[in-house]
Amino acid sequence: MSASPRTQQKRTAHTCITCRARKVRCDGRKGTCTNCERLGFGCSYDEHTGVEVVQTDAAVSRIAIPRRRVRRACQNCHEKKARCSGSTPSCDRCTAQGLHCVYLPGKRSLPLASPATASAASATSAPPATAHPPDSPSYDDGHSGRSAFASGTASPAPASATRAEPEEDLVLRAFDAFFRHVHHIPKFSFLHRASLMERYHAGSLDRSLVLALIAITALLTDLGPGMGEYGSQCMEEAVSLCLAGLEKPSIVRLQALVIAVEHRIFSRRFSGAFMLHALASRFATALRLNYENPELCFLARESRRRLMWSLYMIDSSISAGQRDVALWPDAERQIHVHLPCNERNFEFDLPEATESLRPPPPEPGIGTAPMPDALGFMALHVRIQWMRARILQCTSQAASSWSQQDLTTLPLRCAELLAELEGFEERLPPSFKWSEGNLRLRTYSPRLGIFVMTHVWWRQCHLDLYRLFLEGLREALPRPMLQQLDPNLVARSRQGCYNHARAMADMFAQLLTLGSSVPVTDLDLPGCAYQCTRALYHGLQTGTGDLAFTLERVQELSAVCLRAAQQSTTGPAAASIQADIERIITHGLKLPEGAPDSPTRNSSDPAPVIKSAIDTRLAGHAQLTPDPAALYTFQPSVPATSAPSIALPSLAVTEPPIPAPVAPSHASGVTTGSNAFEEVLSGFTFGPELYGMDWSTFPTGWPNQQFTGSNM
């Protein structure tokens, strides 16, 4: 008895995509199967191409689309539950992150490339970057790890040396917290959320940026127990990845470097931040970020502008008016890009022209031109930082040169800078001006932080300029120079400093009325709060201000500054600033004995003064000796700690040291004479002025810190 045709039909080894979707038997005929030929469907045996069959009233429409979900995911994507492109020999996600892509064979899968072929193709397409071991606390030039150096090129480590990829749930939580609480900080505003999330879900976001975002978010927000230490490990690996790709700079790695610089500043690792910032600036120069690129789309151009201005703001904070330290000392001539647009245009991809860094001059008969709608608080923040950098350069030069010519032109330069500050405030539209109503309207807005800090910086610029006339402060002019100036100018400047300090404290008080809505800020707000406290106590202890302040009133305003600093910023550096404010509240401000009209000379400051050039030249006119007879009784001295006292506009001036007797060579144990490799045993150190730090109240800390690779 012959078998029926159905029983004799052989089962094909392959099924086309259309028959599999329709769940019908396919004869597997080469080219086009019988079913697809009869029904007019598109036929394909490529599992990475899918066909959707949509039934309509008119006819059956055939739409060929890429598969939204592949039948087989690689082992890495499967373990992390991430979307896999399914491409061979390496999927898109593994290629972007430098991972070794392995496909496990399935029951119905097509033959795959051999592991050797896939490994070779993955290595040539995207070499993985060097990473630190999980227990490595920081980047160390002397730590070889799995990296090698040949011909000045860092060879990437094998993919197996990288740390396990963060869980997707953690990454998404970190991204959400970053854009909710951190992104509004001007130095982090270069990231576009929609573009970032799209690239991450596509598996093509650079690993270094992912790790950097987790690290900075874990430092500034609460992501859960143990996340602070885990974030530090993520940051070390992110820096390692950026350094491994040193010869191939990219925008994404530069973004990770900028975040790494800020992370080190928050963590009080200033020497590492100083060197990483120089590397990031070189990245920006290589990528031509300081020039417009009209060939790019608007979002790319705007993101590049914001990234460039973030680098400039970091540079101005580091240099604190010292041009020989700044990498971008003349932004007008070095940075040839416009100011950033407002947040709405950046978020929704709405191109609109903005202004250059310097505002347009007043027109005859018309006056100051109104601010265009395209400018937002990001542009205003960049502009006020540029004004402050020029103020610090002016005051630093005045305090260091002390020539008669500079002293003669000082009143005119101060008047010009004050006029620019007044013009800045006059151009603000009514909704941008400081008022209690405008503050409360932004209570639940992500723009609250930049709104507050722009106005705080406007006040701080006045303090930076006026503090030049507060005799006794280490950044002020000495008494012989102040006596050569117009007494009315000196008196008005001191009074203006005290008025702006009181107004800044009132702003902090209004901010604290918002309760839990106080935004996360960088070190700018605690630094300004510290300078405000110094100015208030200077007016109280010298009696030169016409504020009629009592000790209780000054302590109350200073306590407001302390609370604002505590509620806005976290991290070791912020904790140091808060400790300095508490110390001033408890022990007062240390001033020289010769302060003008001083009813009290507080000598109970907790640590001796580091001798600067100003202190040395003032020594002949004001003795820095303790005086127990003070009108106000302060607490006794407490031992000094190694925490830094931070004052953003600190203007310490250094002089060439007096030549000391030549010390014996450190290499004398090896050779009998001089040695070319001889160096100071204490290592390379940075002065506190590089970050605007005021170290006058601490004998230890950064000046005694060695610069080694471990500080990177």
Q: What are its keywords?
A:
mainly alpha; 4 strands; 712 residues; 3% strand; 46% helix; disordered N terminus; two-stranded antiparallel sheet; elongated; disordered C terminus
Q: How would you sum up this structure, described in words?
A:
The structure is a single chain. The chain has 712 residues and is mainly alpha-helical. The protein is built from 25 helices and four strands. The strands form two sheets. Strands 1-2 form a two-stranded antiparallel ribbon. Strand 3 and strand 4 (153-155) form a beta hairpin. Helix 9 packs parallel to helix 11 (251-266), helix 16 (377-401) runs parallel beside helix 19 and helix 21 (487-512) packs across helix 23. It is elongated.
Q: How is this fold's topology laid out?
A:
Layout: H1 5-8, H2 17-22, H3 34-39, E1 49-55, E2 60-66, H4 75-80, H5 92-97, H6 115-125, E3 148-150, E4 153-155, H7 168-182, H8 193-201, H9 207-220, H10 227-244, H11 251-266, H12 270-286, H13 298-319, H14 331-334, H15 343-348, H16 377-401, H17 404-426, H18 436-441, H19 448-466, H20 479-484, H21 487-512, H22 524-542, H23 551-568, H24 572-587, H25 613-618
Antiparallel strand pairs: 1-2, 3-4
Q: Brief overview, please?
A:
The chain has about 700 residues and is mostly helical.
Give the neighbour order of strands across the main sheet: 1-2
Order of helices and strands: HHHEEHHHEEHHHHHHHHHHHHHHHHHHH
**Could you give the distance between the termini?**
85 Å
Task: Indicate the mean pLDDT.
Answer: 76
